[in-house]
Q: What sequence folds into this?
């Protein structure tokens, strides 16, 4: 029984990431049900378990994916283009996380949070071009998951 | 977790928002963090780094101190 649950969670997780990778958008529970081979209600239950495992962050409706790190389910200021697909990242870290996850060259489009100067950074499989831009995180590592959306 | 054009811009932002200035991370360091966290994320056997692994990754990149300790109680947390 436990093995079956874990198998369904893995199938759902892979299907979620495949959908994000292919489309740049979050899958709905209806998108996933046939991919996982279960009903919509069971996908909602799997989503809740994946959220408890910190694989996903859900919206308040309990079924829309807010985050499947590094992908964001909603538009953000951190956009990444790769292979003709446009993605949104949850934060600056995840903006580089998308090309790292996809193993594809990408362009990161973001901004300086203070001056609003646009950032456009090419990222290859060896990482970003040499850049003197900086990353700053207010929240200490021990508290990242206290409010991961704010982090 | 935000991008800034320079340390001066970070300081201005902290001053304007009241948030504390934290350790700054270069883009080459951020790429290594992104790789460590996400390079296997689309694969079946992927998993998030656990606290001891996180500590090792941060230390290797020179990111040390309580701010980077995922189990530090200095800031009253411990949830990473």
A:
């Amino acid at each position: 029984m436990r093995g079956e649950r874990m198998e369904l969670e893995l199938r759902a997780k892979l299907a979620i990431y495949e959908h994000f990778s292919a489309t740049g958008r979050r899958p709905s529970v209806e998108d996933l049900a046939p991919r996982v081979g279960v009903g919509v209600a069971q996908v909602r239950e799997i989503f809740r378990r994946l959220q408890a495992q910190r694989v996903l962050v859900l919206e308040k409706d309990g079924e829309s994916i807010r985050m499947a790190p590094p992908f964001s389910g909603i538009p953000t200021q951190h956009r990444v283009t790769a292979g003709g697909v446009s993605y949104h990242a949850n934060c600056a870290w995840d903006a580089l996380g998308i090309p790292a996850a996809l193993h594809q060259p990408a362009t990161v489009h973001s901004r300086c949070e203070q001056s609003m100067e646009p950032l456009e950074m090419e990222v290859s499989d060896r990482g970003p071009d040499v850049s003197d831009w900086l990353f700053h995180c207010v929240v200490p590592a021990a508290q990242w998951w206290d409010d991961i959306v704010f982090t | 977790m935000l991008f800034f054009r320079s340390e001066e811009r970070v300081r201005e932002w902290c001053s304007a928002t009241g948030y504390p200035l934290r350790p700054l991370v270069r883009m080459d360091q951020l790429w290594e963090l992104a790789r460590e966290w996400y390079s296997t994320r689309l694969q079946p056997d992927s998993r998030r780094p656990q606290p001891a692994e996180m500590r090792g990754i941060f230390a290797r990149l020179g990111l040390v101190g309580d701010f980077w300790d995922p189990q530090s109680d200095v800031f009253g947390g411990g949830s990473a």
Notes: The longest helix of chain A spans residues 2-23.
